[in-house]
Design a protein that fits this description.
four-stranded antiparallel sheet; alpha+beta; 292 residues; EC 1.14.11.55
Length: 292
């Protein structure tokens, strides 16, 4: 735990949840496409859903591009994360591997929303393709992304936002993302020191930096659970500190999403708050160069 750390975590003993110290919405209704009511809803719940973020005619090429990226990468490339059975779970830095994905980052339905929510120029902190194959896709346990980005990447403030864009239909039954609305107003410190090179295992199954079952039970009792569903092209925007997770996909219906994390250029990474060293660049960009 660093001196002056607003959000201490990865501790040797449990401490009480910490009220959020940062705004949720940093911009104004006049500074982007979202109206005041939408901004208020995001501030309250911690997420919003935007249909038609990627046009229907662009989706086949993007889906084909995911297959191309997966085929072109060396099987041992560290940016490729595999399920225990060997199928691909995630591919990091797709915006650097594909001009088509890079164009998604700069869409008028994407970049201005990120700038408005964060009240500044933004850069890509992390980007990945998430694949949830039919029958074998495994879920992800409840967690706050900011907890990891703070502890392991050195992100100072909760001034980042994620945009998950569906490339296939997200049904309630094929492993689509669940969120605990309103949980972003509280930071939940976690118990347990960060192992060296924790990312080698946490990207497949996260065990460090997750709230305990009692904490999660209280959060759900208070806030409930919402689920992101929708047709291809729909985007889920959610706050960096929102608790979320997903179940496994035992249906024949695969699920794939482009996942973009925008961080404010005024919230650049420092030294990790609770890890031996920073994670690799492909997981946490350390150059806060604004997307233009």
């Amino acid at each position: 735990m660093s001196m002056g750390d607003t959000y201490p975590t990865r501790l040797d003993h449990a401490i009480a949840p910490i009220p959020r110290q940062d705004p949720v919405v940093w911009g104004q209704a006049t500074s982007g496409p979202l109206k005041q009511g939408v901004l208020d809803g995001f501030a309250d719940k911690g997420y919003l859903i935007r249909p038609d973020t990627v046009a229907e005619e662009s989706l086949p090429a993007l889906r084909h591009e995911l297959d191309r990226i997966a085929a072109d990468l060396d099987p041992d490339d560290p940016r490729v994360i595999r399920e225990p059975g060997g199928t691909i779970r995630s591919i990091f830095e797709p915006h650097l591997l594909s001009e088509l994905v890079a164009e998604v980052v700069r869409l008028d339905t994407v970049l201005p929303v990120a700038r408005q929510l964060l009240g500044s120029d933004v850069y890509i902190h992390q980007a990945r393709i998430n694949l949830m194959p039919g029958f074998t896709g495994t879920g992800f346990y409840w967690h706050s992304d900011f907890e990891t980005w703070h502890a392991e990447d050195g992100m100072p403030a909760i001034r980042a936002v994620s945009c998950s864009i569906a490339l296939t239909h997200n049904y309630p039954y094929n492993g689509s993302l669940m969120v605990i609305p309103g949980s972003h107003h509280t930071f939940y410190p976690c118990v347990g020191a960060t192992p060296d090179n924790n990312h080698d295992t946490s990207l497949v199954s996260q065990r460090i930096g997750v709230p305990d079952e009692n904490t999660l039970t209280k959060a759900v009792d208070q806030c409930g659970i919402d689920q992101f569903t929708g047709p291809p092209g729909t985007a889920l925007w959610f706050d960096a500190n929102l608790l979320h997770g997903s179940g496994s996909n035992i249906t024949p219906l695969p699920r794939s999403n482009i996942f973009l994390v925008f961080n404010s250029v005024d919230n650049a990474l420092g030294e990790p708050y609770a890890a031996p060293r920073p994670r690799p660049e492909y997981l946490a960009a350390r150059r806060a160069t604004a997307v233009t």
